[in-house]
Design brief:
It is built from seven helices and seven strands; from the N terminus they run αβαββαβαβαβααβ. It has 236 residues and is of the alpha/beta class. The longest helix has 24 residues.
Amino acid sequence: MAPLKNWDNKTWLSSKKYIHLFNSFVLKQVKLDKNSRILDIGCGRGKILDDLSNKLRLSNRPIGLDIENHKDKSKKIIFKKTDALTFISKTNITFDLILIKQTIHLLKKKQVIKLLSICKNKLNLNGKIIILSLDSKKNEIPTFQLMNKKLKISLQKDEKLFNLILKDQNRIIIKKFVFDVQILKTKYLQMIKNRYISTLLNFTDKQLKNGLNEIKNNYGKVLRFKDRLICFIISK
């Protein structure tokens, strides 16, 4: 699969409002302070970590992992261009929060099992792993026909991963994070062009062009929907 470069590039996921509400949600799930150590797996440009660092006035720079090294990433994070399994297996650092946001679906079953196991071993006493992924049962992301078909297949695979997470974990809490999106159709079309979601990565230019025309014809000037995430909170 090609690298996902634009999920947090000029989208609602990178807006100040989204990040503020998301981090307020996170801070209700785990107790953190200025001495906390935080790891974000699949951090993108590090905007979530940047905001957390400001909120908590972190004395330890949070660590972000991603396989794409963006030039405009936050300077407040320690960025590592690597995969999670490699980094966590080698590091001696333990964490109060390990965040895995909309990344777990990119991994294979065996990788998920191994990742959760080593992440739990890298948690401090009251540390938590927070896994977030699209809510497969209440997805409202605007799509065109082929995108919708591919996304449904992907969400069905996600369901199997969710069951795997629940099966192997005893201390786990499930919550939902919901963000009300209001976006101009012209801006959303640009997001589609930029292949902001992994479902779009392997589409041909022709398929993408046809999809853009569908969006243009099927939606009004402003798109309104709920971006729904399911959240698994795992304790040590």
